[in-house]
Amino acid sequence: MPHTTNDFTINVTQADDVEPIARMIMQSWLETYVNADYGISEAWVRQRYEARLKPEAIKEKQQKLEENIDNPNFGSFVAKDKSGKIMGMTAPYRDKDGKQQLGSLYVVKEYHGKGVAGELMKKVIEWSNPTEPIYLGVATFNERAKAFYRKWGFSEIPGSERMHDDMIPEIVMIKKGEQR
Fold first, then answer.
1. Quick one: which of 50, 74, 96, 154 has the most CB atoms within 10 Å?
2. DSSP-based three-state secondary structure for 178
3. Within 13 A of 54's CA, how many CA atoms are on the CB side?
4. How many of the other CB atoms lie within 10 Å of CB of 125?
């Protein structure tokens, strides 16, 4: 069932959403991850996403989405404004070890502070098993995101630093499962 506010809706991702989501994620990466201190350039981000925007890559992603639509180990939700423009998305999943992963949660900068990320996080929480932990990786320099995740009960795991795509330093955060 879609979640609706006065300003946006959140629905399960459909195949037609795949290409605009990829464009929105690229925009979000350009707004968030370009960082001269870490050698992350706009050109690197654009090159990374141009491959993901090719028709064959979009088609492959659409097929994967359709194959996993009823898979309880995979979720995908998209936030759209009243005009249908994609504002944000999240794609929680269970990894090969059965651990719940946030996967991704992106919101375009113009929609920061408008409740979009919070509503997407609610979808992740609804999707997940509350008795099990949820893990995520976040760029070490993305203080805004880390603060957002802390508000949702996530904490950094000391010593969990790693590199994402051999470029972006990240740390793993965990939201512990509820005790019953």
1. 154
2. coil
3. 8
4. 14
Helix spans in the chain (H): 18-32, 42-52, 55-67, 116-127, 143-151
Residue by residue, DSSP assigns 72-106 as TTB--EEEEETTS-EEEEE--EE-TTS-EE---EE
Contact call for residues 79 and 121 (beta carbons, < 8 A): no
Domain residues of the chain, as ranges?
3-128
Q: Are strands 86-90 and 105-107 parallel, antiparallel or unpaired?
A: antiparallel
Are 113 and 7 a contacting pair, CB within 8 Å?
no
Q: pTM of the full predicted structure?
A: 0.91
CATH 3.30.70.20 for domain 3-128, yes or no, is no
For residue range 81-127, list pLDDT tens digits in order: 999 999 999 999 999 999 999 999 999 999 999 999 999 999 999 99
Instruction: Please enumerate in sequence order all residues whose Cβ is within 8 A of that of 145, keeping only pairs 6 or more positions apart, or say none.
Output: 32, 138, 139
